[in-house]
Task: inverse folding
């Protein structure tokens, strides 16, 4: 008996941004030179800088995790996060970073503590600071992170950013499906199973069923030939009936799971 399917962990599939990292890098380089952005950031720091300097900035995840209390988190989301979100929506960015920050052009990242972050121009504001939008997305199964995918056994949930060019979306879809199929087949092989291959043959399936049902009604091979393949050569038609019966039996005996 073949082993039963296990419940494997969800596989997360990520890749580099299908849009070259230079896109968000150049966007940031132009934005950080904007006098209006510099003024808005200066205003923000004037308002909230002392609070962050004592505890650590929200984007410094390591220091935040070490220093922020539950009341700090509550204060941040109630009093400070709305101001960040307002500026982010104004400039269509996913986070509020100092205009003097530079990001590595090739990697598209900057190191903060032990972690790396990308330019704020690489993600939309509503996917980071619009909590109502994020809540609705998560209820639908999204993470709010474009260019990511999760495979749940034989099903794949992919997130696309429709602001991207079609060619990049198609490229990412092909990447995800290829990667997911490879891993899914490898997972099945470990369990002694195989993934279905080939294309659907609904026309053949219909004939399989018809021939099988006639045989179950007591019809002989000759009678089935006469009713279904009368215009064909008699010997080849008889062989065809036998082939259809064998195919139907294989499908009935478990092969139906390979129909996809």
Result:
């Amino acid at each position: 008996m073949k082993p039963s399917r296990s419940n494997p962990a969800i596989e997360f599939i990520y890749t580099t941004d299908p849009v070259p990292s230079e896109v968000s890098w150049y966007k940031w380089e132009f934005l950080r030179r904007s006098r209006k952005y510099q003024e808005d950031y200066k205003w923000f720091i004037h308002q909230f800088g002392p609070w962050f300097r004592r505890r650590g900035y929200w984007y410094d995840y390591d220091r935040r995790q070490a220093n922020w209390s539950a009341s700090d988190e509550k204060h941040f989301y109630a009093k400070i996060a709305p101001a960040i979100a307002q500026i982010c929506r104004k400039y269509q960015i996913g986070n509020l970073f100092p205009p003097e920050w530079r990001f590595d052009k090739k990697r598209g990242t900057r190191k903060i503590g032990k972690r790396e972050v990308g330019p704020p121009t690489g993600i939309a504001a509503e996917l980071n600071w619009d909590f109502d939008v994020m809540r609705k997305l998560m209820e639908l199964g999204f993470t709010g992170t474009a260019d990511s995918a999760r495979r749940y056994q034989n099903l794949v949930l992919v997130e696309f950013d429709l602001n991207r060019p079609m060619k990049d979306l198609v490229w990412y879809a092909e990447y995800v499906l290829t990667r997911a199929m490879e891993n899914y087949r490898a997972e099945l092989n470990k369990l002694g199973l195989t993934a279905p291959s080939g294309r659907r043959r609904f026309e053949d399936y219909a004939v399989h069923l018809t021939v099988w049902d006639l045989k179950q009604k007591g019809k002989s091979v000759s009678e089935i030939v006469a009713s279904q393949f009368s215009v064909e050569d008699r010997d080849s038609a008889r062989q065809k009936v036998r082939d259809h019966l064998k195919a139907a039996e294989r499908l009935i005996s478990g092969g139906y799971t390979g129909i996809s």
